[in-house]
């Protein structure tokens, strides 16, 4: 790795942001940990950052030469707030930007796809991380994890479609590589775990490891959309998420890549090993 200046990690208390900040500080890099609460992050300088409060942006960017970007959660049009910030970041001296997107959204696609498309025109050094669905969705506070604990069920509109679920720690490892290596990737990177699993497979493995029965309940697209809306997901974003489930059912996420192995030098974690770590 090359010696870097200071990295602003946006969403530094979140799933991938906290892991990325921890890896950067452990490797001796200077980090400004941006979050709405400006809560403490070990080894990093906490700084208040709110996508929707532009008054927080200048202080967060002060002295920063690279940034890890977590889009505002649940916003169907994140470009409206992200692109003005990125233009400000370039003027402030940021040279490299690494954006967290999704394997389901290509450059120019909906939501964060517009930011992906704009990024190469804003920064000479860049990367877009496009991870598959997080393994942590089944162990944290995500709707799937809650329904597993409360109902013993995972509810999706994915049918028998398979997904290359990826560990958030592996995403963070790739993020650190993209932020700190001498040459930026200057491309998008699709990140998956080592195997593609259906939600039936996820339920079976969770049952095996936890010792509690878990089933996969198959919903229609409309049922999934309405369920998300009932859970207070904004209707426009619920349509996007339910549409992603439908795409999975049609095979859009049935793939694995070697990106984690190639960039970090180690194989990605399996879902079973993550559960043993989290639940045992």
From TrEMBL:
Taxonomic superkingdom: Bacteria
InterPro entries given in the database record: Ergot_Alk_Oxidoreductase, NAD(P)-bd_dom, NAD(P)-bd_dom_sf
| Residues covered by the NAD(P)-binding domain | 11-107
Organism source for this protein? Sinosporangium album
Query: What is the designated name of this protein?
Result: Uncharacterized conserved protein YbjT, contains NAD(P)-binding and DUF2867 domains
Q: Per the record, a Pfam family?
A: NAD_binding_10
Which SUPFAM superfamilies does the record match to this protein? NAD(P)-binding Rossmann-fold domains (SSF51735)
């Amino acid at each position: 790795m090359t010696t870097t200046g200071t990295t602003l990690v946006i969403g530094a208390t979140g799933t991938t942001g906290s892991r990325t900040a921890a890896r950067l500080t452990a490797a001796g890099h200077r980090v400004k940990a941006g979050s709405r609460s400006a809560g403490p992050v070990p080894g990093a300088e906490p700084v208040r950052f709110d996508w929707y409060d532009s008054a927080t942006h200048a202080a967060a960017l002060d002295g920063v030469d690279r940034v890890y970007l977590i889009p505002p959660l649940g916003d169907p049009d994140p470009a409206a707030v992200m692109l003005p910030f990125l233009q400000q970041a370039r003027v402030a001296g940021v040279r490299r930007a690494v954006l967290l997107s999704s394997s389901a959204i290509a450059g120019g696609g909906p939501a964060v796809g517009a930011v992906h498309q704009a990024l190469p025109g804003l920064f000479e050094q860049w990367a877009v991380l496009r991870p598959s669905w997080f393994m942590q969705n089944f162990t944290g506070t995500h709707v799937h994890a809650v329904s597993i604990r409360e109902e013993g069920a995972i509810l999706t509109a994915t049918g028998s479609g398979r997904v290359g679920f990826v560990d958030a720690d592996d995403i963070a490892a790739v993020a650190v590589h993209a932020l700190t290596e001498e040459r930026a990737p200057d491309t998008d990177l699709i990140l998956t775990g080592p195997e593609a699993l259906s939600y039936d497979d996820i339920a079976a493995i969770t049952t095996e490891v936890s010792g509690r029965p878990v089933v996969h309940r198959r919903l229609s697209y409309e049922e999934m959309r309405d369920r998300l809306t009932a859970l207070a997901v904004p209707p426009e974003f619920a349509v996007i998420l339910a549409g992603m489930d439908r795409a999975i059912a049609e095979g859009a996420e049935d793939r694995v890549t070697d990106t984690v192995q190639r960039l970090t030098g180690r194989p990605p974690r399996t879902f079973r090993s993550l559960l043993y770590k989290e639940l045992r």
